[in-house]
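Field guide to reading this record: the first block holds the primary sequence, the second block holds the structure written as discrete tokens, and the final block holds curator observations. Each block starts with its own label. This record concerns Glutathione peroxidase, catalogued under organism Stappia indica.

BLOCK 1 — SEQUENCE
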Amino acid sequence: MNRLLASLTCAFFALSSSVALPAMAGEGSAHDFALTAIDGSAMPLSAYRGKTVLVVNTASRCSFTQQYAPLQALYETYRDRGLVVIGVPSNDFGGQEPGTEGDIEDFTRSAYRVDFPLTNKTSVRGEAATPFYKWVTREAGPLGAPRWNFQKYLIGPDGRLVEWYTPMTEPDSPRLRAAIERSLATHASPAGGS
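BLOCK 2 — STRUCTURE
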């Protein structure tokens, strides 16, 4: 049954892998919201103003879990240029994130050496979704709503949603890397600047 669900989910994602969005879509920005870090501290997204942020809802027992490795590699490659990757563990899809925050943190650090920011276990869909996920779903439109683990949202330095990617889009895909490069270039400091 799980394989059938995964196959159907993959087929859906293949039909709609990413959508570019207008620069000024909707009202507000990601900077108007906060998440909660895995250690329970506040994680205001306004702290990332001026940076490019890739927000990914994650799960430890999903067929896409191996994407933690290329997400970490992406973070290591671009963090000095202003990329932040935020992992948002969620149990919303198939019960594939059943552990506690401690379990999640131990697993991601030991299995994938993740050192990008992680949030607490968070609901990302429906009425129970956090305000950030309600906003990003509204910005992305119906096709861009999280439908499975490892949905990706690229937020620009101004807090606007740049693009969204289904779980089928690998973190090291040329399309995602190109979008990150473009976003980073929009806020690059001029040579000799501080």
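BLOCK 3 — OBSERVATIONS
The beta strands are 18-20, 34-36, 42-44, 52-58, 83-89, 152-155, 161-165.
The first helix runs from residue 2 to 15.
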